[in-house]
């Protein structure tokens, strides 16, 4: 992830393709527990792989559930209709709140001899309100450490179900969720009523719980948000197959993307219009603004409809998080957009009304705001301003404003602290860049050229990782070409130039992390040898071969940017790159580094011979007629003989930031 303080988005021109959003955490663990309480098997698709779900799966195995994990599809054989274990079991819950609370409730209502522990932090997270409610029901629960906190021991209950069970709603909605999921265990012969004490918070999460219970055959009667009745005779019934939905508020950015960007449309896998999450109603808001939406089980397809979008006035109480996305869509509308009933924005990660208003104004928009509303006026062509979006440590602000990069004025947008998206969507920008397009000339390229063993590869790949940019190791392309030529029985000189060029033009090469694959065969070690470098140097003097590799090298220039390392990146391949670095180190230094590298890999090496080889290679690279090794006229020289790699990386990042 980006270690940098900001991410520059080049002007984006369109978007099309498919995005697959990760499964929602809160849905994943609810589905696992409900599947475990059913009779028979449930196939759970798209389960999120996270600490919380692993803890839950381990606990279910301990209870005797069948658990079969095949990547993101998990088959659960439930405990319904079977005897639960009678021996004492100790569960380790780590720090997984979404596993601890509902499991505690289910174990306590069913009864047995169970101990639930976690990491130290888990033992500092209160659970007293849930335990109080469960004790009221007749559950036998003891605190093994501090009163009100895990660890807990659960015994056999003697249930008292005749009067309503009170549970506090103003601390954590997870307590109510836990009770709702567990109590059908006790509702075979009588209805059970839960009464919420205090104002219920996080209602959308309770809605998810109720929706999921319905899919598992439990039709809870909701009376306002104060009373919930589990009808007599309730029985968990497996839906057979269930898809864990992606987080619907994360989907809002891609729904908006489809509505804003030119292209063949955006398909979102992971959530459909029949979603059980309240935020899915963002789809209706997007449609009001002009988006065209198609939907099926677990997917959505969005294309641009009305353009410009239509300004709307909307009460957003039902979609508080996703509605922020509407504020940025409003910049592309034909009239003002007013979002009302959003007082909760003021008390989220940041004061979101103030944040959205401030940042939209920085882009040039006219924005009015009140205690619980915001009115955003559209931005006409010619009025967009280049600015740096402050993100207030709020993931949603960062994701929303990435959509401003589609502005008609082709103004780039800087997003500060881009890694704040990790709170809910660590790969947000990667996912966006995989479907967004930009004018190639606008995609930034940093070139790092220099002689053999100057450390270009390490420097370039580290800078790329810090910036979240792609990386082109052009030397590897020459090495692979030479390798392929030798395999084809060719000689590495002008006699076979045309044939080698032909091979290079359709080189089936693929990079996978550090690995280089040729026709899916790992050739990394073969091409990385000293001989591999010498062979590359031989084919690289052949003009037809160099020409044949141009298109392949250019194709690495993709969003959000490229670090290109080689000999002629700044002079021939990317002559207009905004930053070019020419990296050097003394021949003695380079020979010593290469020597250390080889020794550490277990190869024997002679430092004098290495130096002679390096100098021979430099001489050939520098003196060849086509694209000889030399600094571009506008390159910045960096002699790293005395610099650590960290210092070199920092120098390039400093140069890059001062260019930005
Ligand atoms: O950088 P590396 O050592 O992998 O490069 C191997 C050889 O490929 C170099 O010695 C050079 O002759 C050739 N090369 C080139 N142009 C590039 C990159 C590498 O001619 N852009």
Topology:
Layout: E1 6-9, E2 14-20, H1 25-37, E3 41-45, H2 51-63, E4 66-70, E5 73-77, E6 89-92, H3 97-110, E7 114-117, H4 128-136, E8 141-143, E9 152-154, E10 165-168, H5 173-182, E11 192-197, H6 203-215, E12 221-223, E13 227-230, E14 241-243, H7 248-260, E15 265-269, H8 282-289, E16 292-296, E17 299-303, E18 313-315, H9 323-329, E19 337-340, H10 352-362, E20 367-370, E21 373-376, E22 387-389, H11 395-402, E23 413-416, H12 428-435, E24 436-437, E25 445-449, H13 456-467, E26 470-473, H14 474-487, H15 497-505, E27 509-512, E28 515-518, E29 521-522, H16 524-528, H17 530-539, H18 543-548, H19 550-554, E30 562-566, H20 569-573, E31 579-584, H21 587-600, H22 607-623, E32 636-639, H23 645-659
Parallel strand pairs: 2-15, 3-14, 6-7, 10-11, 18-19, 22-23, 25-30, 25-31, 26-30, 31-32
Antiparallel strand pairs: 1-23, 2-24, 3-5, 4-5, 7-9, 8-9, 11-13, 12-13, 15-17, 16-17, 19-21, 20-21, 27-28, 28-29
Helix pairs in contact: 1-2, 1-3, 1-6, 2-3, 3-5, 4-5, 5-6, 7-8, 7-9, 9-11, 13-23, 14-15, 14-17, 17-22, 21-22
Structural class: alpha/beta
Main β sheet profile: 5 strands, mixed
Number of discrete helical segments? 23
Radius of gyration, rounded? 30 Å
Shape: globular
CATH architecture of the largest domain: Alpha-beta prism
Range of helix content? 25-40%
Strand content: 15-25%
Q: Strand order across the biggest sheet? A: 16-17-15-2-24
Q: CATH topology of the largest domain, what is it called?
A: UDP-n-acetylglucosamine1-carboxyvinyl-transferase, Chain
Low-confidence stretches: none
* Distinct small-molecule ligands in the complex: cytidine-5'-monophosphate
């Amino acid at each position: 992830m980006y270690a940098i303080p900001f991410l520059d988005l080049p002007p984006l021109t369109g978007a099309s393709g498919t995005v697959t959003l990760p499964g929602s955490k809160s849905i994943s663990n609810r589905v696992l527990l409900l599947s475990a309480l059913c009779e028979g098997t449930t196939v759970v698709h798209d389960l999120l792989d996270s600490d919380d779900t692993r803890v839950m799966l381990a606990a279910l195995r301990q209870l005797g559930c069948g658990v079969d994990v095949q990547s993101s599809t998990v088959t659960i054989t439930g405990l319904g209709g079977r005897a639960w274990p009678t021996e004492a079991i100790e569960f380790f819950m780590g720090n997984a709140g979404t596993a601890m609370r509902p499991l505690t409730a289910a174990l306590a209502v069913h009864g047995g001899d169970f101990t639930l522990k976690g990491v130290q932090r888990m033992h500092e997270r209160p659970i007293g309100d849930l335990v109080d409610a469960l004790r009221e029901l007749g559950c036998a629960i003891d605190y093994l450490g501090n009163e009100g906190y895990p660890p807990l021991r659960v015994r056999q209950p003697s249930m008292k179900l005749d009067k309503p069970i009170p549970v506090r709603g103003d601390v954590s909605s997870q307590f109510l969720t836990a009770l709702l999921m567990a109590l059908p265990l006790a509702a075979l012969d009588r209805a059970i009523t839960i009464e919420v004490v205090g104002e219920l918070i996080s209602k959308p999460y309770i809605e998810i719980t109720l929706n999921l219970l319905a899919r598992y055959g439990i039709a809870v009667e909701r009376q306002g948000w104060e009373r919930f009745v589990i009808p007599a005779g309730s029985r968990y019934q497996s839906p057979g197959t269930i898809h864990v939905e992606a987080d619907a508020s994360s989907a809002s950015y891609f729904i908006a993307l489809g509505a804003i960007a030119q292209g063949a449309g955006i398909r979102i896998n992971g959530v459909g219009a029949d979603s059980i999450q309240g935020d899915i109603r963002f789809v209706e808001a997007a449609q009001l603004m002009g988006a065209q939406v198609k939907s099926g089980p677990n997917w959505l397809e969005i294309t641009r409809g009305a353009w410009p979008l239509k300004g709307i006035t909307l009460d957003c109480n039902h979609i508080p998080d996703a509605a922020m996305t509407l504020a940025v869509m409003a910049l592309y509308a034909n009239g003002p957009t007013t979002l009302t009933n959003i007082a909760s924005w003021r008390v989220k990660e940041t004061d979101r009304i103030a944040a959205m208003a401030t940042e939209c104004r920085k882009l040039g928009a006219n924005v009015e705001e009140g205690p619980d509303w915001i009115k955003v006026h559209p931005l006409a062509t010619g009025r967009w301003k280049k600015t740096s979006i402050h993100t207030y440590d709020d993931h949603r602000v960062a994701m929303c404003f990435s959509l401003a990069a589609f502005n008609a004025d082709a103004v780039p947008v800087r997003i500060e602290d881009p890694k704040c998206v990790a709170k809910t969507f660590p790969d947000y920008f990667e996912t966006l860049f995989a479907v967004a397009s930009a004018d190639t000339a606008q995609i930034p390229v940093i070139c790092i050229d220099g002689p053999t063993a100057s450390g270009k590869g390490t420097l370039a790949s580290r800078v790329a990782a810090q910036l979240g940019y792609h990386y082109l190791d052009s030397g590897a392309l020459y090495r692979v070409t030479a390798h392929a030529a030798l395999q084809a029985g060719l000689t590495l000189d002008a006699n076979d130039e045309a044939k080698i060029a032909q091979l290079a033009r359709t080189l089936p090469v693929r990079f996978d992390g550090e690995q280089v694959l040729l026709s899916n065969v790992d050739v990394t070690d073969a091409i990385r040898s000293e001989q591999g470098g010498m062979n590359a140097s031989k084919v690289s003097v052949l003009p037809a071969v160099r020409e044949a590799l141009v298109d392949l090298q250019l194709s690495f220039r993709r969003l959000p940017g490229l670090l290109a390392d080689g000999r002629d990146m700044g002079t021939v391949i990317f002559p207009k790159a905004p930053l070019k670095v020419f990296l050097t180190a003394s021949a003695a230094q380079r020979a010593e580094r290469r020597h250390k590298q080889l020794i550490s890999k277990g190869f024997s090496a002679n430092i004098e011979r290495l130096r002679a080889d390096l100098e021979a290679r430099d001489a050939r690279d520098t003196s060849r007629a086509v694209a000889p090794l030399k600094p571009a006229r506008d390159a910045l020289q960096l002699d790293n003989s005395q610099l650590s790699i960290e210092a070199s990386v920092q120098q390039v990042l400093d140069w890059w930031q001062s260019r930005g």
